[in-house]
Amino acid sequence: MPHHFHAAREACTRCHNQKKKCIAVPDTSFCDRCQRLGVSDLCDIGQSEPIPILTKPTACSRCRRQRKKCVMGPLACERCVRLGVERECIRPDNNYSVVDLSQSDEPDLVPPALIPAAPIPLLPVQNLQSMEEIINVDGTTTSKSSSPSHYHARSSLSPSLLHHFMDAMESPIVDSKNSDWSMEDADLMPTFSDWLLVYNYLTNNGTEFPVSAEFDAERLLQNYFQKCAVLRLILCCWAVTFSHNPGEEVNSAMYFSRARKALLRSDLSPSADLVKAYSMIYSHALYRDQPAIGRPFLRNAMEMILELKLDEDPDTLPWLNHLSIREKEELRRVFYICYYYYCLELSTSPDAFHLPVSGHKVNQPIQIYDPNPIFVQLNTMKWVSELRNVIGSAKQLFSSPPPSIPHLLNPTTTSHLQNRLLSIQSSIPPEFIWHFTSPFQITLLEIPTLIAQVRTLQDYLKEINTLYYSTISVLTRPILFLTTIPPPRFTPSQQTTITAASTRCIESAWRFSAVWVFLEYMSTGPGSTLLVDSERGFFGNKGLLYPVWECCIVFWFVACKMDPAWRAQIYGNGDDGEAVRRMKGMVGKLKDGKAGGAAVPIVDGIEGMIFEMEECLSGIRRGVTVNAGETGLELGMKVMTIGGTRVDEDSPISEPYCFLGLLGFEIGNNIRWKGRKEESWRLFWKLNS
């Protein structure tokens, strides 16, 4: 192999080639820079012959310089022959050659190996909101905005790894290797119009400080153009959807399609931003009454939460100590929003997924002032999620009929759920609960107290109050349905159990309806004059689809299915006419909201119940009329794509979303609820009637 030698010089070969100052360390044979880089054994300072470096070129100088594929021919490479510069083609030797870097006029096209000797551990949390991070070798992250004490982790870098980083930073940009020269898709690039759309949505057209319940709205706007494409586009989809402007359906579907494209092209590395995007996609599907479409995205979000350990409070995670209180609160809200949707899925979905996640390790969301309020209040989020979790457990318990009636009446069957409900009830702060004396109505004297509670907390209290009554109803309704069987069939102790459970179930239905009437009175009735414009949203009765269904089932069953002996003992002279009037108001509100998707079977079912209840009140049984032939009508849900204009009549019908179905009963003896275990429940009642 040929060698190239040079006279002795003051700088070592490495410092000479890279034009760096070279200072010899006293009483050693290496310079201070090589010592810093951990390559002191390769330093040749003061030697007359530099240390040779073995290289093996694989391309001619022109192709290497221009980074083109080089295929060698007999005289020159094919590219040089094609360009007519065969004489300028400098061919590499077939064998290894020793090249003195000080004499090379061609810079290295590929910097020294950038692959560390040992793999760098993955970060527990990556790509946090608006954080520029330094990746340490021990897997921690350090913000550039942190105090200087946070930079001590750099000293833990191994010399070899530090050498790779130093060489990479000192190499010219033109020498860096970048194999991806593809152009960015125009659909995924951020634009000022997109930012303005999100800005107007978060600030109410520039009239308010930007706030959000899900994320730090102010910092998101500041760093909008650095966010991942899927998060930016689903934010635009939200902004268009809730603007309620003409053409929002088309524009919303367009942004949703672009967000889906961005998701398909994303690297899907776990990050808090991607969790936000997944939860917002699910929320949008929920708003369009198509929760089945959003379920896979919610599952991905929950799996990422477990991977990033967001199910633990940020204050307890040492690798998040560098975050500010504001950033920790945002992570806390990222978890609770997803956990809320997860519990909603557990309580309503017939195909709910189950993951080992709970909210016991994460503190309740709080408000942060910097100096303005940063987030929307979520005072009740923790308890609402836990109530939905209890409903989900009850839904799973009663998905199949019990082995026998004594098993259903056994206190141990639901005791663990009753204890969980009592624990949640005792932990809810008293100011979150609307207390009223009569289960049938909220009096005018009690209304100012309830308004004051909302005005003080500036939060939505309707959900926690209505959901509490629905939880009681779900836990006791299977026992209420036993009242179709005459009392003599039960022992005295069983009759006592049935009476107590049925009374609680019926009272919870009336209390829910009383809250509904109160919300209607405050939002669109005379009570709206007692509120300022910013407070009316707290009293709206939207988002109560599934509690409405649970309440109407109880009213319908008591009026049409309960045995007369049980009715006289439990219900007495109950006002079925008032129940019908309230049910008509509820279903009318659902229809005014253009309910679709998951709401369609519930609306149809309530209308059938009202028809049958009016027959019972009038004493004239005409039978519910359906256009389904001799087999009757089965209430189910059709799934359509988001942005679609209609539902294909030939599309399959899936099991509807609800807390609990009809448990084998039929509306008007002709309308059934579609469910996997509805037929099993029908057989259960037939065998025990």
Q: How are strands sequenced across the largest beta sheet? A: 1-2
* Percentage of residues in DSSP E strands: under 5%
How far apart, in Å, are the first and last alpha carbons?
Answer: 100 Å
Global Rg: 35 Å
**Low-confidence blocks of residues:** 1-7, 94-158, 623-631, 644-648
**Overall pLDDT level:** 80
| 3D shape | elongated
Please characterize this protein's 3D structure.
The chain folds into three domains: 13-99, no CATH class; 190-348; 381-688. With 689 residues, the protein is mainly alpha-helical. The chain is elongated, with a radius of gyration of 35 Å. The protein has 23 helices and eight strands. The protein has helices at residues 13-17, 32-37, 61-66, 78-83, 159-170, 192-203, 217-222, 229-241, 248-264, 272-287, 291-308, 325-348, 381-397, 405-409, 411-427, 447-457, 462-480, 492-523, 545-560, 564-570, 576-592, 599-618, 678-688; strands spanning 53-55, 97-99, 133-135, 141-143, 633-635, 637-638, 653-654, 671-673. Strands 1-2 form a two-stranded antiparallel ribbon. A two-stranded antiparallel ribbon has the order 3-4.
Key features?
3% strand; elongated; zinc ion binding; nucleus; single chain; disordered N terminus; two-stranded antiparallel ribbon; mainly alpha; 689 residues; 8 strands
Task: Walk me through the topology.
Elements lengths: L12 H5 L14 H6 L15 E3 L5 H6 L11 H6 L13 E3 L33 E3 L5 E3 L15 H12 L21 H12 L13 H6 L6 H13 L6 H17 L7 H16 L3 H18 L16 H24 L32 H17 L7 H5 L1 H17 L19 H11 L4 H19 L11 H32 L21 H16 L3 H7 L5 H17 L6 H20 L14 E3 L1 E2 L14 E2 L16 E3 L4 H11 L1
Parallel strand pairs: 5-8
Antiparallel strand pairs: 1-2, 3-4, 6-7
